[in-house]
């Protein structure tokens, strides 16, 4: 499992990518999907996820829809119209960043 610092820095692009791919998701579903896609290597705690979602909502990038499921209110998050293109840009930027980091660490992999 990776450190909180690494995950914190990648949370926004992770959320935007998942919402772009899946339309709308609720918080627990996002956590489980990340866990599944990374074979349990990345585990996002709700204490990290929800502040990131609230921040994305405050920025106008995510909208929330409340739906009653099994006598409980579930909050579904989805990208806003304005964030669709931005999500793609951020995911592309992050992918390029990963390539750059990969080059950097291959150069200094003598540890």
Would you kindly provide a brief summary of this structure?
The chain is an alpha+beta fold and about 110 residues long. It is built from four helices and three strands, in the order αβααββα.
List descriptors.
3-stranded antiparallel sheet; Arc Repressor Mutant, subunit A; 111 residues; alpha+beta; single chain; 17% strand
Explained architecture:
The chain is α+β, with helices and mostly antiparallel strands and 111 residues long. 63% of the residues lie in helices and 17% in strands. It has one domain: Arc Repressor Mutant, subunit A. The radius of gyration is 15 Å and the shape is globular.
How do the helices and strands line up, and which of them pair or pack?
Blueprint: H1 4-22, E1 24-26, H2 27-37, H3 46-58, E2 62-69, E3 72-79, H4 81-107
Antiparallel strand pairs: 1-3, 2-3
Gyration radius, rounded: 15 Å
Please identify the structural class as seen in this structure. Answer: alpha+beta
Distance between the termini: 20 Å
Number of distinct beta strands:
3
Order of helices and strands: HEHHEEH
* Tally of helical runs: 4
